[in-house]
Every structure is written in C-alpha cells, then in structure tokens.
Description:
The protein is 40% helix and 14% strand. It contains 8 helices and 9 strands. α1 (16-34) crosses α8, α3 packs across α6 (185-208) and α6 (185-208) crosses α8 (238-251).
Amino acid sequence: xxxxxxxxxxxxxxxxxxxxxxxxxxxxxxxxxxxxxxxxxxxxxxxxxxxxxxxxxxxxxxxxxxxxxxxxxxxxxxxxxxxxxxxxxxxxxxxxxxxxxxxxxxxxxxxxxxxxxxxxxxxxxxxxxxxxxxxxxxxxxxxxxxxxxxxxxxxxxxxxxxxxxxxxxxxxxxxxxxxxxxxxxxxxxxxxxxxxxxxxxxxxxxxxxxxxxxxxxxxxxxxxxxxxxxxxxxxxxxxxxxxxxxxxxxxxxxxxx
Length: 257
C-alpha cells in the first residue's frame, strides 16, 4: 500500500510518488520564476501523476509562480475534473492544450508553455529560429510550427496542434510562444533553457547586423557531438535542474509546503 503524506497548506492526502511529483513541479515553477520566465498568473507547466493514468498536476489559476507550492498544485483528470478537492480553478487554455497532448502523446510526461519575450519574438519572425548561433544549431530541423489561431480554448484546435507537432518535441506557436514536451520536468527545463538562450542570441545578433547562418553539414556535426554529451547515467537536464533547485532553496524553501 502506498505511503500517505499530508501536505502543510491544506488537507491533502496523496501517495509518496505523487508528493514527489508535486515537489518537483513546484520547484520547477519557482526556478522558472527566478529565471524571469513567468507571465503574471498565466502560462502553465504540467506533469503526469506517477502510476495514475489520465491524471496530471498543473498550477492553480490566480497564483503567481512564486506562490506555487507542492500542496496547492491542482490535480486534474484528462477530462478536466478536479481530483484533489482543490479550491482553485484551472486556466481553460492551459487545460485544453495540455490535456490534449497528455492524452495523445504517451511519452509527454511534462509539458511547458511560456510567454518569454525572446521566444515569443522568434515565434513571431518569418522563418522562426535560424541556425545562426551555438544554441540555435541544437534545434535545427527539430522544431515544429503551428499558425496562430488565437487563444487555445477551442478543443478542435487540438487536432491541428497534434498534427503539426508530428514527431517533434517542441511546437512553436506562431505569434504566440513555444510548447515544450518532455519525458520529465528536467528534460523540459533544459530544452526551454537552451531554446531561450537560442532566441535571445538570435535577437541580439539581428539587432547588431546580418546573422551568419551555419551550414547544414556543420549543424549535423554539432548535433552529433552534442548527443554524446551530458552526465552519464542521468536523465537529460537532471544535473542542470537540480543545480537550480539548490539555488532557489537558498532563497525561499516555501515551495516545499
């Protein structure tokens, strides 16, 4: 029988696996906030609940990222029903978009949709992200694009989002912002961190002059060598994510409540 742990802020009863997932997602919100990637009370990072089909965690609508804690995350099923008695609502745009991907992309255990200035700006450029810097070369041929249809609250758009994603892991919503899917929160974090840097540098380069485009054959070598990096024996992004969690722990540990 699963170990039961009680949360501090409200009468939450959950398995040990779910509590650990809540801690990791709450930490992720605080790390994103610390790095300046939050957008008032909007945008979303969601994560599947371990060992529970069709259940995932998402931020309570109305709270800033710096207010998100392990216990106030909302547990919701794939049809939008609250499962944990939370008093908080869930942003409809967040639910419609994330639930569709969680339902139809089995490997997507974590999903983030952000509105950072740099990523939104590149999503709004003709041509999108170009292989003109170290980080941008990481993503050459690996990004999908979806034309802007307005705020993502209509269920029928989900089919087009999924079709345009194809076999990629990042969907650039044109004139809007990226959706990043990953097998874990650390993987989503490192993908967003790298994409953010790629976009920031592209914009800075374009402001300074004409960017130099890296040839396709050099991009291929770069991606091959990059795939051989990382910390052996760990999931992608784990070392980076854990380092930033240590950073926020020194600033404010309330995310653990």
